[in-house]
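Can't paste images in this forum, so I'm doing it all in text. The chain is below; anyone willing to post the predicted structure tokens underneath?
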Amino acid sequence: MSPLLGFTPPVFPGDETKTLQARVVHSALWANIALMALCAFAGMIGSQLPGFVVGIELGLAACSLALLHLVRRGQVAIAGGLLLGVSFIALTLAIARMGTIRVPATGFYVALVIAAGLLSDWRGMFAMIAVSSGAVGGLIVAENSGVLPRPDYAVTITQWIASTALFACVGAWTFAALHSIQTALRRAEREVADRKQAEAELQKKVAELSEALAEVKKLSGMLPICCGCKKIRDDKNYWHQVENYVADHSQAKFTHGYCPECAGKYFPSLGGPAESI
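Text version of the structure:
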């Protein structure tokens, strides 16, 4: 499948935010292509929309197809901005050409507001609210001044298809918003789990270090030792052999033998103090 016509959104390794934005823009562009084609088809069936409006809808679908190429090349922000700008201009021109401010046409401004919020955070959303409000206000003034063409108030299948397209558009953007929130929550849950695991490992290391430090400190300070038998007295006034006390309070292990002096003393036949056992 070519990069231009790919139905799978691109993935940008190492940039999860851009990947998420690409998924939203990519889905919006394909939805826009389908919706504009559907609205143009409705206009031709109902014989109610001017040919100029049908041409705008088909042109917007073709423009969305071209923007898909930008998304797959990594220019996600540019594609999203152009989608919002072109859609706003095309919608305003189509409403003006129809000659009246009416539903469902103006309802598509709501979809643009939702899209701007998803693609450009709250700043983009408020900006789109402002320009959409200004556009509707300007169109109202133009209609009341007789500048717009005479509207056709006949009700045909065109209104039904256009309304359905509007519902689908708003629903798609809402789904995209929920999907983005769920993805962010799953990422946050993974980060929390990883952090808890790291904290548990850190606490384990701290406990091990504390235990090792306690072992080191066990034989520090003054040790009461008998001048005669060399036994050591513990904190409970019990006396212990030196090797037993040291073994209980450290990691040291004892092995027994004779020094050269003792070897000569106890085993004179071995040659005196120069040798040891």
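Helices lie at 16-46, 51-72, 76-98, 108-144, 157-217, 242-248, 260-266. Residues 157-217 form the longest helix (61 residues).
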